[in-house]
Amino acid sequence: MAKYTKSEVVEKAAELAKLIAETEEVEFFKRAEEAINKNDKVYRLMEDIKHYQKQAVNFKHYNKPEALKKVEDKIDALMAELDEIPVVEEFKRSQVVVNDLLQLVSSTISQTVTNEIIVSTGGDLLQGKTGSKPGCHQEGGCEHEHQH
Predict the structure, then answer these.
(1) How far is CA 142 from CA 25, 122, 125, 133, 148, in A?
(2) At a CB cut-off of 8 Å and minimum separation 6, what does 118 contact?
């Protein structure tokens, strides 16, 4: 029978989330985000980009391809300028670091659950197969009856 309920698992996930939120990787992200929010040049560029993005939506809606192209080029230039600012580079790097941590946790959980299923059904970890498959013929024979 089941040892844990869905709500107990979700509760443990919330505990894990709190642990992750207190890692050096997340602290790095928070510092980088704070630096970005305090940077006037970043703020001004972001406001300009938003302004031109609104124009681009309007030009696209009113089918004005030449004007749209000019605005898109302006947006690209502003984005390139934004990307060259050290605090923006740092922020983007911090996003990658946190995302890598979350991906590692997710894949670890997934792989561990899969391995637990294989082991608990008498399967073979090396082959990645559970022992619950009908017609299984493990070394030394099966421990259950087969119907023919």
Answers:
(1) 48, 10, 17, 11, 14
(2) 124, 125, 128, 129, 130, 131
CA 90 – CA 132 distance, rounded (Å): 49
Distance CA 12, CA 3 (A): 14
Taking the whole predicted model, whether its pTM rises above 0.85 is answered as no
Whole-angstrom distance, CA of residue 91 vs CA of residue 106: 22
Q: Which residues pair with 129 in a beta bridge?
A: 124
Q: What is the pLDDT of residues 5-48, one digit of tens each?
A: 999 999 999 999 999 999 999 999 999 999 999 999 999 999 99
Q: Check residue 125 and give its pLDDT.
A: 86
Query: Residue 37 burial by CB count (10 A; 0-12/13-18/19+): exposed, middle or buried?
Result: exposed
Which token pair is 105?
Answer: 């946790």
Cα-based distances in Å from 6 to 10, 11, 20, 44: 6, 9, 21, 47
Please, which pLDDT band fits residue 128 given cuts at 50, 70 and 90?
confident
